[in-house]
């Protein structure tokens, strides 16, 4: 290539658990309109995930890569500078923050939507924006229950609605797929499509 050529920004996110070398060929154009060919070679080493978290040692490369990805993208920060807390439950307030950040939503909505989500709470902007976008609707009686643990079925509903709110395809799965799980019949009716 040209001595003055520079790729100013490149993002590569490997599949979780991937290791090996990826070669990306490209054709560039200089400011004088001349073109040049080149390639970017990226080497991903196995077991190089989440070195900052000391409590992920017993997890697979795929699991550590997922944690690393959401950390690097500012979706979560863990419970301390070197612990992720992989076995801990996630509160409804914290999950709302994660969805808000993962989908890069802009703030919207009223400053006080739910009785139990004061405007100065760290999760208020996320919860109120998700409500405005139809991603969350609360637990009834004007409450959101931000400190309660988020149920897996509610988390799946939130993710599906967030995907739909940004125009992604997120259709319901076949309800029969739940029968593959011994507790599939305990999924609430409103969540069966999202869980499927």
How would you sum up this structure, described in words?
The chain is of the alpha+beta class and 196 residues long. 26% of the residues lie in helices and 10% in strands. The chain contains 5 helices and 2 strands. It has helices at 61-72, 92-102, 124-132, 152-165, 192-195, and strands at 20-29, 35-44. Strands 1-2 form a two-stranded antiparallel ribbon. Strand 1 and strand 2 (35-44) form a beta hairpin. Helix 2 (92-102) packs across helix 3 (124-132). The model has no long low-confidence stretch (mean pLDDT 88).
Low-pLDDT parts are none
- Total E-strand runs: 2
Q: In terms of structural class, how would the helical and strand content be classed?
A: alpha+beta
The helix content, as a percent range, equals: 25-40%
Which geometry do the CA atoms define?
globular
Rg from Cα: 21 Å
Tally of helical runs: 5
Strand content: 5-15%
Largest sheet features: 2 strands, antiparallel
N to C succession of SSEs: EEHHHHH
Separation, N- and C-terminal Cα atoms: 50 Å
Overall pLDDT level: 88
Strand order of the largest sheet: 1-2
């Amino acid at each position: 290539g040209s001595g003055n050529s520079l790729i100013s920004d490149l993002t590569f996110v490997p599949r979780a658990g991937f290791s090996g070398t990826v070669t990306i060929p490209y054709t560039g154009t200089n400011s004088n309109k001349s073109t040049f060919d080149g390639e970017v070679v990226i080497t991903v080493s196995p077991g190089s995930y989440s070195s900052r978290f000391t409590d992920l040692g017993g997890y697979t490369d795929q699991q550590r890569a997922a944690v690393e990805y959401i950390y690097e993208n500012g979706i979560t920060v863990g419970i301390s500078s070197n612990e992720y807390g992989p076995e801990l439950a996630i509160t409804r307030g914290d999950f709302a923050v994660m969805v808000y950040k993962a989908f890069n939503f802009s703030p919207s909505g009223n400053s006080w939507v739910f009785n139990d989500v004061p405007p100065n709470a760290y999760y208020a902007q996320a919860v109120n924006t998700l409500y405005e976008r139809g991603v969350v609707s609360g637990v009834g009686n004007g409450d959101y229950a931000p400190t309660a643990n988020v149920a897996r079925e509610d988390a799946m509903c939130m993710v599906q609605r967030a995907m739909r709110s940004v125009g992604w395809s997120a259709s319901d799965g076949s309800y029969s797929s739940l029968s593959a799980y011994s507790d599939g019949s305990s999924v609430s009716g409103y969540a069966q499509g999202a869980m499927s």
